Amino acid sequence: MRKMFALLVSLVASLMAISSASALHGPTGEDFTPNDRLERVYFHCEGAAKLHNSVQDGSIPWDTTAPTQPVTAGAGCGSLDNGLWGNNQVSVQDSHFQGSFAGNIDKITVEAHNIYLGPGRQSSSFTVNVRLAIDSEPMLGATGKDVTVTPVRSSTGASEMIKFSIVGLNLMNEANDIEHDVLLTLNGGAFVANAQVFPVHDSQNIWVYDTTEVPSGLVFNPLAAETATITR
Prior knowledge:
Blueprint: H1 2-25, E1 39-43, E2 51-52, H2 54-57, E3 60-63, E4 77-81, E5 95-103, E6 108-116, E7 126-134, E8 137-138, E9 145-149, E10 152-153, E11 160-167, E12 178-188, E13 191-192, E14 200-201, E15 205-209, E16 217-220, E17 229-231
Parallel strand pairs: 2-4, 3-5, 11-17
Antiparallel strand pairs: 1-3, 1-16, 4-15, 5-12, 6-11, 6-15, 6-16, 7-8, 7-9, 7-12, 10-11, 13-14
């Protein structure tokens, strides 16, 4: 009898432990702690060409290795932003950057360096159209969203740096703690509404990257967002 009672007590205790664990870790993962780790990645040249061709070369890749060579050593390359404004995520008129990130994503900060090809700007700021797809889902709508940025000119005056953050991505649940495919598309300049054939911007730019002077890239889950932000 005592053995039977002890067995019943042990069984009840086991069932209670299982029930408690199920309540804690339940099927919806109520106790999940987001894997919102911070990671800095850098855009890199691909092949020998100094001017990236979106039609031939596809997306510009990134990884976590920072550029180690200056432009005076022959490093770096650029992607022409010809002023034509594409209306989809991967537009050959625009510059697009693609890579992966493993973990949850709430916000992304973009650091991009630019050589301005047009006449002098009339103001200290300009507008960038931003499209972002994560796992093939447009996060900012099919045509993206605009952000107004204030460029910081380099010490040589040869290039400008812009920074902005994309916030409210909210891929923070357990199902999104995976390796994501991330595709970023940029087009800079003020929008010209009365263009006859294609929507255009009023400037041409070259987005430059992969040198110590222009370490263009992304920060996933930065500690704080930039002043210039886009909200999903």
